[in-house]
Amino acid sequence: MANFRTVSTKSSSRDDSPDSRLLRQLDELQRLSQDSQRASFGVGWQEDAKNFYHIADSMGDVPSFRPRVRIPQLQTLFLNEATDLSDTTPIVYVAKHSERDKEREDSFRQHWRQGFINNRLLETYLSSMVFGVGYLMVGFDAFARRGQGLVYATNILASRCFPDPSAHNEDDWQWVQWTDDMYVDKIAQYWDRGAYVQPGAHQFISGLGDQPAGQFDMLPGPMTSTMGPHFQNRAQNDGKATVRYTFIYDNTTEVVKDIAGSEFARDLGGLSVPPKFKMKYPNGRMIVDCEGVKLFDDNNPFPLRRFPIIKFPSLPCLFGWYPPPPMRFTKSLQDLSERMYTQIFENMVRVNNAQVFLYDDCGIDPDDFGGIPGEVRVIHANSKPPEYKTPNVYPSQVLEFPDRLLTLQRELQGFASSRQGEGGAGNTSPGLFDATLYQAQYLTRLRARLFSEPIQRFSELLFYTMVKYYVNDRTFPAFSRGEEVGEVKWSGTSGDELEDYTIELDAGSLRPVSTAALRSMVKDLRSEGLLDTKHALEMLEVPEAEEIAAGLQREQELAALSHIKSRR
Fold first, then answer.
1. How far apart are the C-alpha atoms of 407 and 416, rounded to whole Å?
2. Residues 77, 333: contact at Cβ < 8 Å?
3. What does the alpha-carbon distance between residue 410 and residue 76 come to, in Å, rounded to a whole number?
4. How far are the Cα atoms of 45, 60, 91, 237, 346 from residue 56, in angstroms, in the given order?
């Protein structure tokens, strides 16, 4: 994202200059979005979600007889759900002037595979289930691929993204912000004004900004002289600085000057009364700032008036931008189960550490009695020996209760026993078992339906960004079992062909289907003659499906020729 550079090298002043007023307005937008986040999730929700995913123990040191028992069941359920959803690769169709463009389709799909977009989707799905909403961003790195440039996708955590709090989705938002930590030399590489960035120089107006990281000193050497005159000051403060990106629909207009004979006048198509004003930012406005320095301020570089952020909600949004995080639905059950397992372990330790009761007339001095196993002691004649007393153990119902809580959590999160492959009582036909398994995935099917719209938005933005910035011809090699079997060509574009293309997402490619159900469905379709061999093997993800289908076709042709000759 940080590769759309400005050419100005003037430093930004810290007084009441236009740049300073602009940065204060951006601070206010971020504060409003943060207030909306806290109103929806509560104070400290980012740290709670981070500790939950990292299984961090905030209790500190605990006694050896009472260690904290952690059961990361909910984390593994989310990983399972995200894996099921990202296993399906969306199929996108591309049309140019209402005619299918197969070359663009193949190159787009190969770009999707080589860019590991499914992995980025997995990270976004997982973030949406932990935070309630995930964000996938499209960017263009002009320095990648040895200067050829690369359109990429990356996941942005919800704690670092600040959307318009009055919006419900991307259709009605007016602005969006997000932050990223970058090394200061990287900032100077991307933007000319980056040489003036000093970490920690800008104070966020709400006092809730990122805390400064640890400081380090730049050792004397060649880097101190090659990094520019401001590098030593930057290195004395911090290695990274927070870069803030702001995209906003700015309705500012500007006066049309010298309209007669100008390019703008020629575009008017011979209007009798030409307008005197035009939009200053017709594609939206992009502003990049860092530590009080405005790095970039110009037209939105992304195509078709799109912002490069796509929202992925894990549950339906009924009351504004944010849905309830699925983590909060059952986390209390997991916390209670962990506490109970901790208490059960403590009770087991207490039971094994029995108490010893000595009688007064037994002749044993309690001060030197250790209760060591195998210890030999002499007691008085006709006296009672020491007695060992242990606490009562918990009944079996108490020991089973934590497991019941975890079972309830699995059911509430859509992981019933039938989804785990456990059939019902009695004989169950394969069709009924598949139907039961399909019904058990109701939350997965719900999220697949919710994610279909964001994936459509993301696919459009990814493709249109490729059309705009891949202006030169390039090839995407195709491999099979490590061997190159061909290449997919991308014909260079002029960058202004965006309106000529239309892309459509195949909704069926996002529908989660279990492997067992898919195999059964492919088998049935093949037996009915509704599916050919090549597509059947591809649906089952059999390696070298095309070669196998071609070989089978040749065998069938030879068998048919042999049959004809035998009849003659």
1. 8
2. no
3. 11
4. 14, 10, 39, 29, 21
Residues 417 and 427: their CA atoms lie apart, in Å, by 16
Within its chain, how far is the Cα of 417 from the centroid?
28
CB of 289 within 8 A of CB of 236?
A: no
Cβ contact 247:286 at 8 Å: yes
Cβ distance 239 to 184 under 8 Å? yes
Q: Is 68 helix (H, G, I), strand (E, B) or coil?
A: coil
Whole-number Å distance between alpha carbons of 80 and 85: 9
197 close to 184: Cβ distance less than 8 angstroms:
yes
Rounded alpha-carbon distances, angstroms, from residue 334 to 154, 250, 314: 31, 47, 20
- Cβ contact 457:310 at 8 Å: yes
Q: Which two tokens stand for residue 11?
A: 């430093």
Sequence letter at residue 360: D
Q: How far is CA 68 from the centre of its chain?
A: 29
Widest pairwise Cα distance in the chain: 127
* The model scores a pTM over 0.90: no
DSSP string, 216-285: --PPSSHHHHHS-TTHHHHHHH-SEEEEEEEEE----EEE--S-TTSHHHHTTTS-SS--SEEES-TT-E
Closest CA to 233 of 293, 157, 144: 293
Relative orientation angle of helices 45-54 and 18-41, to the nearest 10 degrees: 60
Taking the C-alpha atoms of residue 157 and residue 161, their distance in angstroms, rounded to an integer, is: 7
Q: Return the half-sphere exposure (C-beta side, CA atoms, 13 A cut-off) of residue 260.
A: 0
Which structure tokens are listed for 50?
A: 């981070």
- Name the residue with tokens 């990429």: 152
**Gap between the Cα atoms of 160 and 182, Å rounded:** 14
b/e string for 173-184 if b means 16 or more Cβ within 10 A? Answer: bebbbbbbebeb
Q: Tens-of-pLDDT digits for all 568 residues of the chain?
A: 444 433 333 344 445 788 889 999 999 999 999 999 999 998 888 888 888 888 876 555 555 556 788 899 999 999 989 988 888 778 888 998 888 998 899 899 889 988 999 999 999 999 999 999 999 999 999 888 888 889 999 999 999 999 999 999 899 999 999 999 999 888 998 898 888 888 766 666 554 444 333 333 444 444 443 344 444 444 444 478 999 999 999 988 887 665 555 555 555 555 555 667 788 899 999 999 999 999 999 999 999 899 999 999 999 999 889 999 999 999 999 999 998 888 888 777 776 667 778 888 888 887 777 767 777 788 888 888 888 777 777 777 778 889 999 999 998 988 876 665 555 555 555 555 455 555 667 888 888 888 989 999 999 999 999 999 998 888 887 765 545 567 888 888 876 778 888 888 887 777 665 455 556 667 777 777 777 887 777 766 666 677 777 788 788 778 777 777 777 6
| Measured CA distances, 293 to 12, 44, 203, 238, 260 (Å) | 5, 29, 12, 16, 38
